[in-house]
Amino acid sequence: MEYSLLCHSSYVSFQPVKNKLLVYCIMLSLWAYMLYCCIGYCSTMPSFMMESTGKGTEPEAELLMKTQAGHRGTVTEPDRRGPKALSRDLLNNVNEADSRAEDWDESKGEQRTSEESTATGVVNGSETKKLPQAIIIGVKKGGTRALLEFLRVHPDIRAVGAEPHFFDRNYEKGLEWYRELMPKTLEGQITMEKTPSYFVTKEVPGRIHAMSKDTKLIVVVRDPVTRAVSDYTQTRSKKPDIPSFESLAFKNATAGLIDATWSAVQIGMYARHLERWLLFFPVGHMLFVSGEQLISDPAGEMARVQEFLGLRRVVVEEHFHFNPAKGFPCLKKPASNSKPHCLGKTKGRTHPNIHPDVIQRLRDFYRPFNKKFYHMTGQDFGWD
Ligand SMILES: Nc1ncnc2c1ncn2[C@@H]1O[C@H](COP(=O)(O)OS(=O)(=O)O)[C@@H](OP(=O)(O)O)[C@H]1O
After folding, report:
1. Can you tell me the mean pLDDT for 347-365?
2. Whose CA is closest to atom 17 on ligand 1?
3. Cβ 134 vs Cβ 216: under 8 Å
4. Any residues with CB less than 8 A from the CB of 23 and at least 6 apart, and which?
């Protein structure tokens, strides 16, 4: 009895302390949870990923490390085709060693970001990986990287940095594989990717439509003549021994017959490719961004893109700084003294001088295609 009384009295005196302790514990847990959520959220915030301007330009891979987290595998497969097919590819400029190398660097960079975020223990439960609701489908050398990086500044956009090539090269891997490549997003954020070869690959419109008929499609187009030279310049940077642009562009130089089977030429026949897309998507599901305007008026072009995606206009004039040495707009943080960030050396390569007659012949070749393209899109891109 005495014992139980003693116990009771000590229990009564200990009770308020115990209650207080309990309250402190709950408060501490809440605090820790809030802190954890905050850090998790911050990890999803976009950051500038482009390299510093000036001479010692940082490779894109490094810059990608500074961007959003997410697992992105390298999408390259060993080439099991015979030497004949490979040499034809080389001529056709579809053996994209250059672009694959860039992809590899990019995904390497992104993987590191992913590792970094795991190391800091940042995992946010409210984020999930979703299939992209919007895709930059082309065109190769149109300015697709610049557009994606400008978009990544927007807090409501999360994009995979490397080109997944799901709908053209990796389709058999399935949608779950594709989804796994995507960064995690919060409710309301838009998942995006860019793979410029989609626009010209026959099977892709149907495949994207099968994933979702509501997918928003963005095509960055550029004067097809300059685009062809840019494409050739990229291939030549990796394989300096390829034949001259002139000899590849003509089927018969004396007759001035353009070789429309050469991919550098074929990609620029935009109207032809667009016809295939319009079998699956209404033109209103597609936005055509002018590659030229993206350089001369990035904020204006970004306003169109943000509106098309149903986003607040966040990326504005103050985010851009035109770098005269590079000849391109670079990204900067508004109201900050930090250095603007530009794309890497593989963007904005010096093009070789092509004989004016060849350029003129190409202009003549593209004119009817361009006219048709303007008509189909309701936009005059002013290339002629
Ligand atoms: N802001 C900015 N900075 C650097 N480069 C810019 C920019 N905006 C557009 N461009 C042009 O983008 C061209 C490369 O296009 P892509 O990124 O679509 O190329 S790729 O298909 O992904 O290889 C690249 O082509 P080249 O100049 O021929 O190298 C650039 O002209």
Report:
1. 96
2. 145
3. yes
4. none
Q: Which are the catalytic amino acids?
A: 141
Q: Name all residues whose Cβ lies below 6 A of ligand 1.
A: 99, 140-146, 196, 230, 233, 294-295, 328-329, 343, 347-349
Task: Write out the two tokens for 51.
Answer: 């390299």
Q: How many domains does the chain have?
A: 1
Note whether 50 and 342 are within 8 A (CB). yes
What's the ipTM?
0.99
Residue closest via CA to ligand 1's atom 30 equals 348
Structural domain contains residue 265: yes
Distance 36 CA to ligand 1 centre (A): 39
Q: Is residue 246 part of a domain?
A: yes
The residue behind tokens 């007659």 is: 357
158 assigned binding-site residue = no
DSSP 244-275: PHHHHHEEETTTTEE-TTSHHHHTT-HHHHHH
- For residue 240, the enclosing domain spans 45-377
Tallying the residues shown for the chain, one arrives at 384
The answer to whether residue 78 scores a pLDDT higher than 80 is no
Candidate from 49, 104, 145 with most ligand 1 atoms within 8 A of CB, to mutate: 145
Q: What is the pLDDT of residue 253?
A: 87
User: Could you tell me if residue 250 is inside a domain?
Assistant: yes
